[in-house]
Amino acid sequence: MELVFSKWVFLFSLCCWLIFSVAVAVEGVHGGSKVRGVNLGGWLVIEGWIKPSLFDGIPNGDMLDGTQVQFKSVTLQKYVSAENGGGMDISVDRDDASSWETFTLWRVSELEFQFRTTQGQFLTCYGNGCSVSATANSASSTETFQIERNNNCKVHIKIKSGTYLQATMDNQLTADYPGTPGWDDNAATFEMTIVANNLHGDYQLANGYGHNKAKQVLEKHRNTFLNVGDFEFLYRHGINTVRIPVGWWIAYDPDPPAPFIGGTLEALDNAFSWAEDYSIKCIIDLHAAPGSQNGMEHSASRDGTTGWPTSSGYISQTLHVIDFLASRYAKHPAFLGIELLNEPSAAEVPLDTLVSYYKQGYEVVRKYSPSAYVIICQRIGSADPLELYQADIGSHNLVVDLHYYNLFDTFFVNLSAIDNIQFIYKSREAQLQALNGANGPLVFIGEWVNEWNVTSGSQSEYQDFGRAQLEVYNAASFGWAYWTLKNDRKHWDFEWNIRNNYLRLSSSEKKVFNSLRWLLLASICFYQCQILELVENWI
């Protein structure tokens, strides 16, 4: 009889373990064992491609910070060039244009700009009669030029005093053109080519509009892009977590350093309140660090450069931001964790610098919470996430964030629908299994999307692609978060995907939970048979 009782105790314990493992594998998450999340991208950190209309009202909107331009003299038919990429006088002597002939704009006002070379120096001119050089390491009034444009690509460039630059016959660029030039072929007229205008982030928006207008635009956007109804929608569709990108300037709200606009902290407070109302957890994701950790618009880079790892001041400032966020939200019922940094660049951020920061950030969060999840993002580019598993960053509730896109790499360009799906099952699944099996942090697919390079994909193909991703990413030990809730590009828009039946969460989720349920039932039946047999033998 003692043996029978112990079997029943074991059976009860097994059932409890199975149920517990399904329900609370991630501490505090409602409605499932793991994070089933959606990113709130494009809201508190601006990404112009998510909502391009935010930039429509900027005058000279094709000449934002970070825009790359080239100038060609209409009289010499030669390009303006910074020899060796900067550090020398400017010449006007190149037949063709490449990097030395390409300048990156720093916007001062609608008509005033500073020009940065590929080596980082600024074009400078001390006054009337000077020869322009690329020798300034920082920019002020003598590095500021005004651009006049006509209806086509022709421009005039003048210095602060009002004197126009001209291309001389000996191939120099000098500030001594006499009088006011017309738009005919003269030495002060240049053809301007915009080579790239790819950055449309917080810096470009705020500096492009100017403070007052930018404040109006962003207040309207923050108040209308998301609301409590979106959290109700997420709750109804089984989403239990939101990952909320924020910029470093949130710690200085309501008056952050120029050109950034205050108001993101109040919006984040609102998100926490809405999330609490619907039992949704919040992950705060530091998407933009001081100086930019990857040179992209979503890290608020001014000109495409990555300054964050080059300055201990930037890193200290970032730790202050983490301290601010952890101290403010650690005790909030909706708080789940903090992501210390989004998508640091593998090419620009050394591993030892990143690991040192992650270790310090982990300790900062632990000052305010012994159990909050501390999330560390893998470096984007050529970096193996295993490097973070070997770094001994923290001992408890540490999570590694991977971003899975079948995009942004030439490998995916020509893949068919079937090829993309097979890649999910063969490559992504194998990596997840390896990381889940590693003795270290939990695994989080913090960004993924139901989009690819397949042209004219059918609805059923999109459904198959989404199903494959959900089946595989459901195995991630921490969970996943879709990028993003709202987007002008419909296949990136989570709400659109759900409403139009391109992404079906229920079928994939049922498959996972059904498997666990059958495992539980099978175990119960097995031990019931064993116990009955023992009872019969005892009788």
TrEMBL record:
GO terms for biological process: actin filament bundle assembly; cell migration; establishment or maintenance of cell polarity; polysaccharide catabolic process. Residues 60-195 form the DUF7910 domain. Residues 234-488 form the Glycoside hydrolase family domain. This is Probable glucan 1,3-beta-glucosidase A isoform X1. It comes from the Eukaryota. It comes from Gossypium hirsutum. GO terms for cellular component: actin cytoskeleton; cytoplasm. Residues 1-25 form the signal peptide. The keyword Signal applies. GO terms for molecular function: actin filament binding; hydrolase activity, hydrolyzing O-glycosyl compounds. Pfam families: Cellulase, DUF7910. Keywords: Glycosidase, Hydrolase, Signal. Belongs to the glycosyl hydrolase 5 (cellulase A) family.
